[in-house]
């Protein structure tokens, strides 16, 4: 059903995501309605349900993947929560998360390409300037594989690129009751596939991992490798 949720408007796209059973919570729906994808995808037909290039060999994910992410993390993106968006790219998902955590919450968007941090900051400043004024969103340059411990621990962590292995630093930065979703490379025979993993940290610190679905993301890597990659 995914890949069939394109629209000519933000509202039409969201309606199709709901009808497809991908956008499953009212709070995730409200966030996607409040944050217009067209302000972050600066190409024609921004509401197509597919990834779009934003430069520097990265993409803004397809709307159905954003809808899955926000729905899966809805309970952790509560009012006043702290969230980390690794590979924040255009800033779209960081802005959606910021809507969900409210004015008392905080979202850190991290990317290792300084120009992408400039783009995401500009996008959110134009679309939701109050998020920046309230310091509800902060974008930082850094290696997302290491997380951003300075503002942790986090109730929700989203990783928007595929890791070779699940980064332990991100698990360490999850708060008790927190949830991490991350695409991770898996090898089946001669194929390199990607599984979207859900990692939940219990109140006692124990961790539960769950495979959700197979996905296709750009690699979570270093800046040099990323700029050499042709996604």
What attributes does this structure have?
231 residues; alpha/beta; Rossmann fold; seven-stranded mixed β-sheet; two-stranded antiparallel sheet; 30% helix
Question: In summary, what is this structure?
Answer:
This protein has eight helices and nine strands.
Detail the topology: elements first, then pairings.
Layout: H1 10-19, H2 26-34, E1 52-55, E2 58-60, H3 63-72, E3 82-86, H4 92-101, E4 106-111, H5 114-127, H6 129-133, E5 137-141, E6 154-159, H7 168-172, E7 174-188, E8 191-201, E9 207-214, H8 223-228
Parallel strand pairs: 3-4, 3-6, 4-5, 6-7
Antiparallel strand pairs: 1-2, 7-8, 8-9
What does this structure look like?
It is an enzyme of class 2 (transferase). Pfam families: PCMT. This is Protein-L-isoaspartate O-methyltransferase. It is found in: Cytoplasm. The chain is an alpha/beta fold and 231 residues long. The chain has a single domain (64-228), classed as Rossmann fold, CATH 3.40.50. Helix content is 30%, strand content 27%. It has a seven-stranded mixed beta sheet. Strands 1-2 form a two-stranded antiparallel sheet. The longest helix is centred in the middle third of the chain and has 14 residues, at 114-127.
Shape: globular
| CATH fold-level label | Rossmann fold
Estimate the strand proportion: 25-35%
Radius of gyration: 16 Å
Number of helices: 8
**Number of strand segments:** 9
